[in-house]
User: Fold these one by one.
Assistant:
Number 1:
Amino acid sequence: SYVLTQPPSVSVAPGKTARFTCGGNNIGRKSVHWYQQKPGQAPVLVISCDSDRPSGIPERFSGSNSGNTATLTISRVEAGDEADYYCQVWDSSSDVVFGGGTKLTVL
Amino acid sequence: EVQLVESGGALIQPGGSLRLSCAASGFIVSRNYMSWVRQAPGKGLEWVSVIYSGGSTYYADSVKGRFSISRDTSKSTLYLQMNSLRAEDTAVYYCARMECTGGRCGDYSYYYMDVWGKGTTVTVSS
């Protein structure tokens, strides 16, 4: 089955830029979706289809996807962005696949 | 308002069965792809199952043959029947609506989870 690889953690100072990578074999050929999950809460969609931002998600959130890596970028990071971030794709067997998640710490 | 509310979570002994429900409001369950996703304590998200609007169903290998996803159109409710439960099935179970946008809905890979419930907790332990 298809495997998505995410680094366990990312740390960034307030006001700086956080980048979350999601690695997978030829992931650039797939559509990648990103979710934010704060402690004790359900996940929230922050980016769909590589780079589409749902209504209500700040413009600070953006996404890209090429080659073997998809990237979620948060500009001007705020304390309220502290959360776990998960990437998600579908594999060729009609199964949904999540990455292991990356924990964002705002210093 | 579009909303999903899960119920049915419980403490259950290994080998037992449980049925989770997910009540939808503000949209019609049968017109959407719907998924179950779980999260074991301290772990990441794990996809469990999906049902397409056309009725096709798919399962993660970890639950195949033990879990069954279904829906009741009249009640706008999604279900997850869980049999032969194991300790490793202990998790918060979320239901999620899957949506797509634009002209890409003919390809399942463009579907994403845009609405989530708050989850229901299943604990498998003796």
Number 2:
Amino acid sequence: QVQLQESGPGLVKPSETLSLTCTVSGDSISNYFWSWIRQPPGQGLEWIAYIYNSGSTSYNPSLRSRVTISADTSKNQFSLKLTSVTAADTAVYYCVRNSHLGVQNSPRYFDYWGRGTLVTVSS
Amino acid sequence: IVMTQSPVSLAVTPGEPASISCRSSQSLLYSNGYNYMDWYLQKPGQSPHLLIYLGSHRASGVPDRFSGSGSGTDFTLKISRVEAEDVGVYYCMQALQTPSTFGQGTRLEIK
């Protein structure tokens, strides 16, 4: 059974960098595509980025200038860094496996999700 | 691509059917004949999970009371007989054009 677990600080100060790690078990991150998705409190879902082949990446253009996704195959982990955060970045952040891509290599078929971790941006 | 769901919320009596609509601002039908749209359900306090992919294909383990239909810009998720465990927020998502984008969600409650 594939399992994903997010970890990282739950509180980040404005203008600082949000850093999260996802630890995957039951599958190798060398397989498939691995995404970050976020959900502001009481709101909908926003895809942030994915990584595959342990280094190839795709980003949501709306966040691209502030986001970096990376992977550590030795630990079977992938990570998210979001710079210059504001209160608008407060959200539950999910790490997710997407098994397939759509047209334009857009992520789809999000079949395994972590439980999510709430990150609050506040001073 | 903007995804618009309706209704925003609905309350259904157990055993009755339910229907959720999703409209996309552009056609999601690709030249290969597939509609690039998924449906997800987020139960209270849980992460979302995949229900339907490519518009009408049930994901593994999804009960057959769930069905997806539609093509182009108009899609429907139907639950033939609602059960108490079906409560939550339903999201449609397009994957025709990057970035993939979600609808705002439809909340299903039990009467």
